[in-house]
UniProtKB/TrEMBL annotation:
Belongs to the DNA repair enzymes AP/ExoA family. It comes from Aurantiacibacter arachoides. SUPFAM superfamilies: DNase I-like. NCBIfam families: exoDNase_III, xth. The active site is at Y110, D151, H252. This is Exodeoxyribonuclease III. The lineage of its organism: Bacteria, Pseudomonadati, Pseudomonadota, Alphaproteobacteria, Sphingomonadales. It comes from the Bacteria. Probably binds two magnesium or manganese ions per subunit. The record marks D222 as: Important for catalytic activity. Its EC number is 3.1.11.2. The record marks N153 as: Transition state stabilizer. It holds the Pfam family Exo_endo_phos.
Amino acid sequence: MKIATYNINGIKARLPRLKEWLLETRPTVACLQEIKTQDDGFPADEFAEIGYHAIWHGQKAFNGVAILADGVKPVEITRGLGIDGPKEGEGEQARYIEAEVNGIRICNLYLPNGNPHPGPKFDYKLAWMERLRARMADLLASEVPAVVLGDFNVIPTDKDVWSVAAMAPDALMQPQSRDAYARMLGDGWTDAIATLNPRGGVWTFWDYQAGAWQRDHGFRIDHLLLSPECADRMVAAGVDKAYRGREKASDHTPVWVELRD
């Protein structure tokens, strides 16, 4: 069972590239972030044509998450973590959706960026991570096989970035962000990519600016965290780096883990 995450950075703009990736790599489950469309604008029919069923949680122009499953309908468990955005009266943003697919709990998230730091957006990021950790603790307690995956907007360690100095001021690398992520792992979750690439140097994001892709100036912020039940079944994990280099690509690349049936 292959489970993947892909920050698509606008599903309508990237739809041809997304369908290419689905057809060429055929993940069992594909979790998307930054779909950037309201619910009624999600192109579910496009995925049905190639055998994928979908559920989604959209928002106009920003955020948005979706879960696609090959040949089966994801059974939605919940959406949202019950935490309002950083602006007063804003309400909850479309950043989390959870479903069951083939006996695996799939928790797809788009964690707040947190910039500028310090400030209310960074405070919101940390509060969101605390709420996520609480949800993950519930999953661990239930002993359900689970994968928590998506764009975490956290660079976990110095070996996960091309230049520590260049990214040092960013919210993605602040000690508070890293500590919150480390506490999740400490609760009993396995970072699939880090486990199989202990030396680091694996990137999942390259900015559109300053020739970052051409110079390989990237960093790792897209993660797959496995519950103990799933970690025992991991056989492979990787990054589909080449898709970042295609025409009109997302600034992220797909990341995946393969579990034994």
